[in-house]
Amino acid sequence: MTSVVDANVRGDHDHRKPAKENLLHIVIGGQAVLVRSSDIREVVRPGGLTAVPMGPEHLIGLANIHGQIVCIIDIGGVTTLPACQRTQTPRTRFLILRHPRMLVGIWADEVCSIRQMDAGMLPVAEASGDSVVQVEMGGELYALFECGCLFR
Fold first, then answer.
1. Is residue 108 domain-resident?
2. By three-state DSSP, how is residue 125 classified?
3. Residue 136: which domain range?
4. Where are the alpha helices (DSSP H) in 25-124?
5. Which of 38, 81, 103, 131 is 20 to 30 A removed from 15 (C-alpha atoms)?
């Protein structure tokens, strides 16, 4: 069996480009946040929200998205991220997350762009025990939010 080091010494270089991960750049409470696009089912403009009396502080309300009831949450209430504005503006969006059984959306004060980063360069927040880790991209610091931590 040939090891990676031996193959490179022989000149059999792997010319494939490293896998890229698409990240959605959003703003929550004034902080730049990245979310893996693979964790997002849909980005929607906010409609009306129904308050949940005596619900947890991070539960902003319930939204009717395509006939489905979706819990919209402020991830600032369950992570180290700042709280969202909770006032709808033309830039506010709901990020509906991918999950096989639950319908959960997070409030984003603004959706900015799609960014790409080498998948191997992304830290795994779950390994550190936190749902948010800091990453640098293009000389700027971002908070990388691991959506899977919400479902544990």
1. yes
2. helix
3. 17-151
4. none
5. 38
Could you tell me if 24 and 40 are in contact, meaning their C-beta atoms sit under 8 angstroms apart? Answer: yes
Dihedral over alpha carbons 141, 79, 88, 31 (to 10 degrees): -10
Q: Where are the alpha helices (DSSP H) in the chain?
A: 4-10, 125-128
The whole model's pTM is what? 0.83
Measuring CA to CA, which residue among 148, 24, 29 is closest to residue 98? 148
Q: How far is CA 120 from the centre of its chain?
A: 17
Q: Which residues contact 105 (CB under 8 A, 6 or more apart)?
A: 44, 63, 65, 70, 71, 72, 73, 94, 95, 96, 97
Residue 40 lies inside a defined structural domain of this protein: yes
Q: Quote the DSSP letter at residue 48.
A: -
Q: 72-101, pLDDT tens digit by residue?
A: 999 999 999 999 999 999 999 999 999 988
Q: What is the CATH number of the domain that holds 90?
A: 2.40.50.180
Q: How many domains does the chain have?
A: 1
Mean pLDDT, the chain, as a whole number?
86
């946040």: which residue's tokens?
33
Structure tokens at 67: 């006939």
The answer as to whether 115 is a domain residue is yes
